[in-house]
Amino acid sequence: MRKKIIAGNWKMNKTPSETVTLINELKPLVETKDADVVFCVPAISLTTAMEAVKGTNIQIGAQNMYFEESGAYTGEIAPNMLTDIGVKYVIIGHSERREYFAETDETVNKKVLKAFEHGITPIICCGESLKQREQGITIDFVRQQIKIAFLNVTADQAKESVIAYEPIWAIGTGKVATTEQAEEVCKAIRECIAEIYDAVTAEAIRIQYGGSVSAASAPDLFSQPNIDGGLVGGASLKVDFGKIVNYNK
Ligand SMILES: O=C(CO)COP(=O)(O)O
C-alpha cells in the first residue's frame, strides 16, 4: 500500500514572515499519519519554513533546483544548499518553469539525477496542454516526458520518486480534470514506469494529480487506484488545505 503524499506548491506567494504565519495557521489542520504532507515554499522562505515546522511531521520542499554543484550560475540554487538546511523534496519541471523559464525534458532529467545524488526526493511534473488533449496525444506526450525524465535513473531511485501529473489546462483555471481523466493518465504513467523498469517499481512509485484540486474534488481524486495524492496550488494557501489533507475523514 502506497502512502499518500499531499504537497502544497505555494508558487511565488508569501513573504518569509507571511510564510511563518500561514504555516502556524495550517500546522494543526494538516496533522495526519496517513499521508506525507509537504509545503513547497519559495526559496527565500525555506529556512524560516524549516524552523516553523520543527516538531511536526510536515516536510518542506523547494520549487526548483539547479543541476550543477556550484559556480557561476547567478540566481540559481544548488542541491547542497537545500540539503544543508534539511530540505527533503524538490519540485522539478513544473509546467510554469517549462513555459516561462525554458525548462526542457532534458534539464528535468539532469535535475532529477542531481537531486538523487544528494538524497533529495524529486516531485517530477508532467502534463499536456489543452491543444494536445484535443489532438488526442495526451498519453503519448506524457509518456515521452516520463521516459526522458527517468533516463539513467535506477529502479531503486525511481521507487522513491514522486510524479505529479498536472494537465496544464487544469492549473489555476478552476477546471479540474474529471476523476476518470486523471486516473486514466496516472494509470498510463504507472504502466510506462512498469515498461521502463518492472512491476515492483511501478507499484512503489507515487503519482499525484495536480490542477485546481479543492476540498470538494480531493476525496474522489485521491480514492482512485493510481492517484496517490495531490500537488495543490491555490488551495494550499488556505485553510482548505487541511480539508484536502484529511480528504478521507
Ligand atoms: O500547478 C499546480 C500545482 O503545482 C496546481 O495549481 P492550482 O491548484 O492552483 O490549479
UniProtKB/TrEMBL annotation:
* Residue numbers annotated as active site: H94, E166
Record bears the keyword Cytoplasm:
yes
Q: Which domain of life is it from?
A: Bacteria
List the GO molecular function terms. Answer: triose-phosphate isomerase activity
Q: Pull one GO CC term from this UniProt entry.
A: cytosol
Report which reactions are catalysed by this protein: D-glyceraldehyde 3-phosphate = dihydroxyacetone phosphate
- According to its UniProt record, where is this protein located? Cytoplasm
Broad class of enzyme this protein falls into:
isomerase
**Isomerase: is it a keyword of this entry?**
yes
Pfam families linked to this entry: TIM
Which GO biological process entries does UniProt record here?
Answer: gluconeogenesis; glyceraldehyde-3-phosphate biosynthetic process; glycerol catabolic process; glycolytic process
Q: What is its main location?
A: cytoplasm
Residue positions binding substrate? N9, W10, K11, G172, S212, G233, G234
Q: What is its EC number?
A: 5.3.1.1
Q: Which UniProt keywords apply?
A: Cytoplasm, Gluconeogenesis, Glycolysis, Isomerase
Q: In which pathway does it act?
A: Carbohydrate biosynthesis; gluconeogenesis; Carbohydrate degradation; glycolysis; D-glyceraldehyde 3-phosphate from glycerone phosphate: step 1/1
Supply the PANTHER family for this chain: TRIOSEPHOSPHATE ISOMERASE
- Subunit info? Homodimer.
What this protein is reported to do is described as: Involved in the gluconeogenesis. Catalyzes stereospecifically the conversion of dihydroxyacetone phosphate (DHAP) to D-glyceraldehyde-3-phosphate (G3P).
Family designation: Belongs to the triosephosphate isomerase family.
Q: What is this protein called?
A: Triosephosphate isomerase
